[in-house]
Write a structure and sequence with these properties.
The structure is a single chain. This protein is α/β, with parallel strands linked by helices and 479 residues long. It has helices at residues 43-55, 90-109, 120-140, 157-164, 181-184, 190-197, 208-222, 251-258, 261-274, 292-305, 327-347, 364-373, 388-396, 427-439, 442-458, 461-473; strands spanning 17-21, 26-31, 34-39, 57-63, 71-74, 81-87, 146-150, 169-173, 202-205, 226-227, 232-235, 238-244, 278-285, 313-320, 355-359, 376-379, 403-407, 420-422. The longest helix is centred in the N-terminal third of the chain and has 21 residues, at 120-140. The structure holds 6-O-phosphono-beta-D-fructofuranose (F6P).
Length: 479
């Protein structure tokens, strides 16, 4: 493994960019009349922010209400680009974000059809908010900008923008899984969504499978021919390119943090405090797609089936609160609380707590300490577009030790083939996979982790941004 001294350079396409996303890169607050900004955590946001600082342009996103201006220069003290915030009413937030995005497109794309609520009021709100984003774009951005729209919240936007300005260069990245056509076709507004996306010049997905599902849906619903050889669609007199760009992380950042002596010390303290031979770690947003309950059942089964591990293992589950106003997320939280209560009640002994549960957000440094302390990461979503936690764990294991159990239904599994790949619905199989990982010889762990680290370093977040933007700008990839 190379040292991380040569930091990757941020790619700049040499022209302004307009990014349009649901979440803003910064939270703005007023304190005693003075405006302050705080960067939202997340590697992707940080790198996009770096690119915007180099290229200039506009970032349009949903912003807080209150007396925050609709447009500010970022950074506030020496502006490099404009942040345009769309203020939404409570009703709009409910219908567009909690409703259509999180109770229709999210469950549908993750194959949870029974959790979809196809309310037409959600659809109407979603359409109106996409129109609102289009209006903000019209008022602020230039024709020569490269436009990069992110994710399932804004699927109608490419066509809305193109309707007004046919010559724009529009890229769209779909961050979550794109479901198989028979699943996608369940959506009452399937055609509007696909035609919305087809306003783009380039549509990016995490995996070839997602791109293929999209092609099939376009054939089945819009009934236009797709060209799989050239990975393109001829629609409305234009050629739309479809590409695969798996999202990575800032490998060097995680590796460097993990190499810092204070964090190594914190990890040692944490291990001492937990006081077992093996810490098993799960880190997720609290979301039903993440398979937290199934993972807990598998851990319970491990303790039943392999009692020799009592007092020798502890599972730490970090769950970051998410979408807490959506009913399905509240119900899941209760079910997780109950399951954890049952397992700890059933197995705890005087000096041994088999399971620790932390329901809150963590700063990146704290996460690194947990990643360093964990002998095994258990990343078992039922479905996930990519899963960056798996990559963060790997990038933090700078000693090239530790094991990763990874769901085969994550995008990450396509490249992290040296992980122990599991079917997260198979509770017995998952319990056995944990047992297999706990018993794995050191050499084998080392061999696998070394390969995993190469894979994560090779296609990092800088590679992802550069390859998408180069493709959108029509430049050739060097490798
Ligand atoms: O992975 C999809 C995604 O919408 C991301 O864009 C986002 O960071 C994450 O899920 C969390 O969701 P939310 O923005 O709804 O909190």
């Amino acid at each position: 493994m190379e040292s991380s001294e040569n930091k990757t350079c941020v790619f700049s396409p040499g022209r302004p960019i307009t990014i349009i996303s649901n979440r803003a890169p910064y939270q703005l607050r007023k304190h005693f009349g003075q405006l302050h900004h705080e960067k939202n955590i997340g590697g992707l946001v940080s790198v996009l922010d770096e690119i915007m600082c180099q290229s200039g342009g506009t970032w349009i996103a949903w912003g807080e209400k209150g007396d925050i201006p609709e447009q500010v220069g970022i950074p506030l003290d020496r502006p490099r680009y404009s942040l345009r915030l769309i203020h939404l009413t409570d009703l709009e937030v409910n219908q567009y974000y909690h409703g259509f995005s999180n109770r229709v497109l999210w469950p549908l794309s993750h194959y949870f059809l029974d959790r979809c609520h196809f309310g037409s009021e959600y659809w109407n709100g979603y359409r109106e908010v996409n129109e609102k984003f289009a209006k903000a774009f019209r008022e602020g951005s230039q024709d020569q900008d490269l436009i990069w729209i992110h994710d399932f919240h804004l699927t109608l936007l490419p066509s809305l923008l193109r309707r007004d300005r046919p010559n724009l260069s529009i890229g769209f990245f779909w961050h979550i899984p794109f479901p198989a056509s028979p699943v996608f076709r369940v959506l009452p507004w399937r055609e509007e969504i696909l035609r919305g996306l087809l306003g783009s010049d380039l549509i990016g997905f995490q995996l070839p499978l997602h791109a293929e599902n999209f092609f099939q849906s376009v054939e089945d619903v819009v009934k236009v021919p797709v060209n799989r050889d050239s990975s393109s669609i001829n629609y409305d007199g234009r050629i739309i390119r479809v590409g695969v760009f798996p999202v990575g992380i800032d490998f060097d950042k995680w590796n460097d943090l993990a190499s810092s002596p204070p964090l190594a010390e914190r990890a040692r303290e944490l291990s001492k405090e937990v006081g077992v031979e093996n810490i098993i770690l799960g880190v997720d947003r609290l979301d039903y797609t993440k398979g937290i309950l199934e993972r807990l059942y598998a851990y319970e089964r491990l303790l039943e089936k392999y009692p020799e591990f009592h007092s020798r293992v502890c599972m730490i589950q970090i769950a970051v609160p998410s979408r807490t106003r959506v009913e399905e997320y509240r119900t899941l939280r209760r079910e997780i609380d109950e399951t954890i209560g049952r397992i700890t009640g059933r197995f705890s002994k005087r000096k041994w707590i088999p399971l620790r549960y932390l329901y809150r957000a963590f700063a990146i440094e704290d996460l690194v300490a947990y990643y360093l302390a964990a002998d095994l990461a258990l990343i078992t979503p039922l479905r996930d577009g990519m899963n960056l936690v798996a990559k963060e764990y790997v990038a933090s294991r700078m000693q090239e030790d530790g094991s990763l159990i990874l769901s085969e239904f994550t995008g990450a599994a396509a490249t992290l083939t040296d992980a122990i790949l599991v079917n997260p619905y198979d509770i017995e199989g998952l319990a056995d996979a944990i047992h297999f990982a706990l018993c794995m010889p050191k050499d084998e762990k080392h061999r696998r982790m070394k390969q995993l680290r190469c894979a994560v370093k090779d296609k990092d977040i800088y590679w992802w941004c550069a390859s998408f933007l180069k493709s959108l700008a029509g430049e050739k990839e060097e490798n």
